[in-house]
Amino acid sequence: MAGLVMPEPKADILARRAQIIADLRAIVPGEGVIDTETEMRPFESDGVTAYRQMPLTVVLPSTTEQVSQVLAYAHANGIPVVPRGAGTSLSGGALPLADGILLGMGKFNRILDIDFANRTVVAQPGVTNLGITTAVAHEGFYYAPDPSSQIACTIGGNVGENSGGVHCLKYGLTTNNVLGVEMVLITGEIIRIGGQHLDSGGLDLLGLIVGSEGLLGVVTEVTVRILKKPETARAVLMGFPSSEAAGACVAAIIAAGIIPGGMEMMDRMMIHASEAFVNVGYPLDVEALLIVELDGPEAEVNHLIERVGEIGNGLGCLTLRASTSEEERIAFWAGRKAAFPAVGRISPDYLCMDGTIPRKALPEVLSRMEQMSEKYGLRCGNVFHAGDGNLHPLICYDANKPGELEKAEAFGADILLLCVEVGGVLTGEHGVGVEKRDLMGSMFDETDLAHQQRLKCAFDPNSLLNPGKVFPQLHRCAELGRMHVSGGKLPFPDIPRF
Fold first, then answer.
1. In sequence order, what are the beta bridge partners of 107?
2. Are residues 351 and 300 in the same domain?
3. Distance, first Cα to last Cα, the chain
4. Domain residues for 386?
5. What is the CA radius of gyration of the chain?
6. 199 domain-assigned
7. pLDDT at residue number 158
8. Which of 26, 85, 349, 490 is 20–30 Å from 162 (CA)?
9. Where do the FAD-binding PCMH-type domain residues begin and end (predicted)?
10. pLDDT band at 95 (very low <50, low <70, confident <90, very high)
11. What is the pLDDT of residues 269-290, one digit of tens each?
């Protein structure tokens, strides 16, 4: 796994493997426990296939009660647990542990309730993102967050990573569209947070859970808000002579007070790869392409398309084409949605990064990434959520060539450090996982990280849920609570101690 370091497997757990598997079969009978190497092989990695690790065993529960019993058993026996959805994560967040239970939630695949009057859907975590929209489309509704992997990724995984998508600029990330969850703690306790109401009183625990990457509990039910499909939606293709010019156009559109339903950007490499893959009519004589979608009442949409065109033309736009039908709008997006698999046709391997920057920094960051590409001798394609500055550089390499994976990792680290340098963050929607874990110190100091770990300790005091992820060094909760003693003297000696 290149230079990646994971927690050392505990010998006593490995020695008890046969008994652990037998005990788990009693909880999840039938085909609910997988323990052979061949059958466990599909679970050895998530979307970041450069990192692989076989789990101790795989458990596939089908009820919340089974999840509760598995977690209670793991807690009582000190066994780590790694929750897993569809395995589409691009940060190594579902990478198994050699001494840990991989808890697959794929059997939780039913929609439990659709309430059009209240505009909510209650779904199990294994329901796909697109599955929610499909279930409500006949009444003119949809679920707004739409990651490119929406045909496969699950709503439970979306909650874990706080996933976004092309429409998150206007309609928000997962955290803005989830109203409640049912979650099982490591002790086996089943709790509910939020519900079908708009807001909850008290502390915003739901905001803490969305994006927690499986470190706090296992989600077994999700309540989301659904939206009425806009009256009109049209997409505009805008070609530019440089990525810098396209980046400047993004900033200018937002500065003009226009909030598109989605605004995506692709550079020359990605335009050609995507067009060859889906053949939707992208212009091939430009260096950068913007896809800007405007939605709302028809008169408003038509007006905004004119305004966006004026802004683009003022910044050197070379080609401008607005969709004239729903089929054409969908076709415009098809290339963007297929961008990641399209790269598989031009490179044997690639790493997909996920940093977020202030929009005004787009021209500078794109220019510096080109310099990095020359430095490392690796191609890098750019396709990203331009409206909110969420970059997805695709670093191409060949894992069969010695040292290329390491170069790609170093290139990716430099990109993420650049994002932090210009005032951005390490991740926008893919999560930290193991990919960005060791870069957390570039964004947070020791005090920041310690406070984040204390939150984990409140839910999982023995650090059994997804250990080795997010935090560069996972302290034991007892270590975090220790008092600092200097020169043999306690701080504030006048305060009574208990």
1. none
2. no
3. 47
4. 347-435
5. 24
6. no
7. 97
8. 349
9. 51-229
10. very high
11. 999 999 999 999 999 999 999 9
